Amino acid sequence: MNVAIVGVTGYSGTVLWRLLNQHPNIQRVNIYTQQSDLTAVSKQFNWVSDQSINVFKFDIADIMTNNDAVFFATPAGVTGGYAAELMNNDFPVIDLSGDLRLKDPAQYKKWYHQEPNVSHETLSKVTYGLTEFTAATATYIANPGCYATATLMGLAPLVQERLIDLNSVIVDAKSGVTGSGKKLSRATHFVDVDENFAMYKVNQHQHIPEIMQQLREWAPDMGPIQFATGLLPIKRGLMATIYAKISDEVSDVDDVIASAFRATYMDKPFVKIMDNQIPDLRLIAGSNFTAIGWSYNPVTRVVTVVSVIDNLMKGAAGQAVQNFNKYFGLSETAGLTQLPDFV
Amino acid sequence: MNVAIVGVTGYSGTVLWRLLNQHPNIQRVNIYTQQSDLTAVSKQFNWVSDQSINVFKFDIADIMTNNDAVFFATPAGVTGGYAAELMNNDFPVIDLSGDLRLKDPAQYKKWYHQEPNVSHETLSKVTYGLTEFTAATATYIANPGCYATATLMGLAPLVQERLIDLNSVIVDAKSGVTGSGKKLSRATHFVDVDENFAMYKVNQHQHIPEIMQQLREWAPDMGPIQFATGLLPIKRGLMATIYAKISDEVSDVDDVIASAFRATYMDKPFVKIMDNQIPDLRLIAGSNFTAIGWSYNPVTRVVTVVSVIDNLMKGAAGQAVQNFNKYFGLSETAGLTQLPDFV
Amino acid sequence: MNVAIVGVTGYSGTVLWRLLNQHPNIQRVNIYTQQSDLTAVSKQFNWVSDQSINVFKFDIADIMTNNDAVFFATPAGVTGGYAAELMNNDFPVIDLSGDLRLKDPAQYKKWYHQEPNVSHETLSKVTYGLTEFTAATATYIANPGCYATATLMGLAPLVQERLIDLNSVIVDAKSGVTGSGKKLSRATHFVDVDENFAMYKVNQHQHIPEIMQQLREWAPDMGPIQFATGLLPIKRGLMATIYAKISDEVSDVDDVIASAFRATYMDKPFVKIMDNQIPDLRLIAGSNFTAIGWSYNPVTRVVTVVSVIDNLMKGAAGQAVQNFNKYFGLSETAGLTQLPDFV
Amino acid sequence: MNVAIVGVTGYSGTVLWRLLNQHPNIQRVNIYTQQSDLTAVSKQFNWVSDQSINVFKFDIADIMTNNDAVFFATPAGVTGGYAAELMNNDFPVIDLSGDLRLKDPAQYKKWYHQEPNVSHETLSKVTYGLTEFTAATATYIANPGCYATATLMGLAPLVQERLIDLNSVIVDAKSGVTGSGKKLSRATHFVDVDENFAMYKVNQHQHIPEIMQQLREWAPDMGPIQFATGLLPIKRGLMATIYAKISDEVSDVDDVIASAFRATYMDKPFVKIMDNQIPDLRLIAGSNFTAIGWSYNPVTRVVTVVSVIDNLMKGAAGQAVQNFNKYFGLSETAGLTQLPDFV
């Protein structure tokens, strides 16, 4: 198969390009760019790689003609303009941007602070590709956000099986700096990040609505969640620490929680359930794994669930490849065999 | 005045020694040690300092004879053996260890995993020195733990004025590695900490009982709190992120919270109230300041309070000096004028 | 005394402002700025400081009327325009920028890549303020660059006493990121610095000519030096590792080197001579100290001298205060008593 | 093929185990250990890997019977005891330890501070496996040290073609903390490494004699080198910065250097020659690449060569696999296709 990438210069795009080049079922990766200087884009990749770098001017028709699928790792506001055309041609898309994740354009406007450019109808045809929870998918797959992935995976069994008070969820999430993108900013200047920890976008992160949308599919009466995000002085890795009150009617809580997590993630090759052990970021950084552990406190009846991912892998490029694998009926782990860097 | 330090080789002791040497009301700082090699202790300090280093063999009578007060920065299990004697002599003590913070010896045994060696009666005579909340103090002052300081300061107005559901408190706290002490361990080896974030002692941290003890003094019907701690890949700084549900009867929540914090910390020279702005660690690292900000979410009625301190200053040595200043009726800021390192 | 600062928003300016505020001989620090929004400048400082922040519109006459001295912590290209006027009025200036360090305008053009705007005559009246080596100074003091300070202090006894082959000097210097200034750049983005070490400006750093100028004052036949700089993934601290061949005629090399360093820096309160021990950055970071150690290899006859400073203290603001103290005949350590942060 | 690893718990061993498991020509990796608790060793690896973990009690006969080759990633002092037996059986060995690198046991004693336990004769049969420079190899391969690899690769063309004064070489090398091994020590405690840079073992590093031994094979009249090592506050990556005077007889220096490097490393799949561009650590960290750049200064006639590797890959486990590939006539890049982590 040949695949196209649009938006290869950001962190997610770079990791994605690397994964696709090593993918056993992919013959050729074509880079499409709206930048005029194709050589500059090519140069970003060729410094130590002998793999051929194929860079073309962005052209939606060309993409569909010469490829079997396209990955978009573009900023907010780009994919909306092409979604309908791609759908009409039944052309497989994995969209890493947030543009088509929310079914309700009003939510998009509220959380992304820009006008939506996709219709209700187009949005309704999109699959939200949280891979462990999607079966057959549409041709257009919205790859979930990094915070959404870790949070939803940590909450899924608890919400689906109503083990918790649906109005009690509090998420304290933290991410490495690649999660903030490659653009220069005061908040990501070395001197401002190093030896610091800073919270940002408390209750305002744009991944909140996609989390709520998915939770409400699982439990329509799901209450609002409390959601905070923090910036760790590291490059890669994301932890969602989730607090929730266990429902009064649940007894044998430890066993019930363990069974729920084990049943939900049975046979999922990228999920490691750690029971009463709290995973740290090193355990998964560099890999496509999600590790989930928890601690139940019988005194407060609060369960603390910790869900960790690599924000660029399971939180972006890795899950995109996993979505690709599922769509084309390949082995779910194809091209994703890399173990964590952990020594 | 002359003051004694016991336990100067740890992180808190080192910072304390430095602060006391710069203190305008202190003439001489005497180091007492149970190590046999006094020169080795002296050598730790003399490399760039021209200040005279006075090291003596530990001797409780000698301490009382030649000093006006003693600071203990010793590990758990040391001060208990000397507390009664020091009290009987009305000798002023600032004890940075956790040995005399808990009024109930059974709690000490449960959380410190060792036998208490202090009687109920002795414990009853100790002042828990959370400086912003103590008036006249006893001669024996138990300097609060770092997590306890940040958490209690962030919760005080909310609990004292019952603005929150007393059964809803969840604390997600994080600290730099100096908080784990100077002893070598796998968990504090550079390779294990760098580029990582790890939670530890979830619901098991030994500062939990002193937090509960103080909260119940403020509100006897205070419910248990949920308390997690994490290790940041930095040296210094501690953040307590506190989540609590605002009581149903409270209206004008934003104003009420702001008024409560402002009233509580009015005229407190080391507390900065930031209202709807979340402080980060850089803001206070290196100084004795506590900075507190919050964000109220009307959808969930949860308030997120963020309280940050330098774990070695306000969380240990700085507050110890503040306790000393208060006890002797000095200016509260004497010897503590250092601004944050922040550039 | 009242003093003025121009250029307070950069890293050096911020540290300088803090030092001057704590200075026992300074009553009032006035900030002058060319930015139109004075409140914005004020806001940078008032968040945890109760010290009054005095911000004025930049006006050279106003500065001279209301202050006893002025510190410039401005970028290259600013001070040249005001130097002559300030000199004509005998007004004391400590200039942290590189504009008046080089006596030869052609050198300035070559290394700073911009047209010099100061005359030969004006330049000739400037004192190059390497404090340990200046006696009576002119009113206009050019505060040395950070790399120049560490390198010159490490080389001084060896060159002055001609203990080394004057054509054999190689300097491998490294600095923390604050040395690169506050401006955002790809090279100082957290993701690019963290877990990396990068050399830059090999043989092209603008501090090379001021080093050569000073070395040639000490030894007119001094040969060119090899000079490389690297960016460490830390905030503060600078190490100059200096390699030089010991002259053939020198015997008892270890003793001769030790004597030379000890004699040169005898009675210098901010210099710590460590003999055969190599100082690391922690030893001095946060303080105004320079620590110097060395290792002589009899097999190669090469001496490795390591000279470490805090780039914002002895490398900028600290030495500026030291220059101020010397000019006004104050104690050299006034306002500079801060010990290293080292725990 | 089946391969054995002895010493899998250290950093090099862990990375090696991972590489061998992904190696296309290896069917099974057997771990041999002298620890009694085999399960503990197994547990280190099975947490996120579904790959089978085969752990056996260390037994040299068993190793030779059930494997096609053995890798030793053991501390100094282990392999010497087995080398002769393995050689007598013509059993292929890749030895990552330093025990058999030096031909002269007296040198071993001097630099490793322990008695050599290998005879001159046994040592004479060992191939020093600097892969880019070895042709047919013996069965026993001594895998070079990390500092030796980077330094020798940066010096090879200059020494082999005598482009430099053979008595002028100065190496200023720096490494990440994994280079110091997994054992806890004060020097590798997080608080001591973070925000610091420390030189260590100046002129005393045990890789110096293997560098000299190899350089003297290339140029018997090679003079001693000056060699310093420093500890960077990062996990992985090593830079050797090499200074040397270009010989007086060389003209067209830039061209001559470039030609020499290009000719030496032509067709070497893991070497990237960057000419007048200085590589940083990010460029190669995580991969088996060596990147080499330089800058020639016509004023001093000194060339600065910078050679960077990942200390655990090309500096240890990666080169070990490369040696394995070469020995068995496999593609040199088999199992080593991983690109740098760089984003």
UniProtKB/TrEMBL annotation, chains A, B, C, D:
Pathway it works in: Amino-acid biosynthesis; L-arginine biosynthesis; N(2)-acetyl-L-ornithine from L-glutamate: step 3/4
Keyword tRNA processing: no
Catalytic activity, reaction form: N-acetyl-L-glutamate 5-semialdehyde + phosphate + NADP(+) = N-acetyl-L-glutamyl 5-phosphate + NADPH + H(+)
Primary localization: cytoplasm
Gene Ontology MF annotations: N-acetyl-gamma-glutamyl-phosphate reductase activity
UniProt KW keywords: Amino-acid biosynthesis, Arginine biosynthesis, Cytoplasm, NADP, Oxidoreductase
Compartments where located: Cytoplasm
Protein family per UniProt: Belongs to the NAGSA dehydrogenase family. Type 1 subfamily.
Cited function: Catalyzes the NADPH-dependent reduction of N-acetyl-5-glutamyl phosphate to yield N-acetyl-L-glutamate 5-semialdehyde.
Protein name: N-acetyl-gamma-glutamyl-phosphate reductase
Gene from which the chain derives: argC
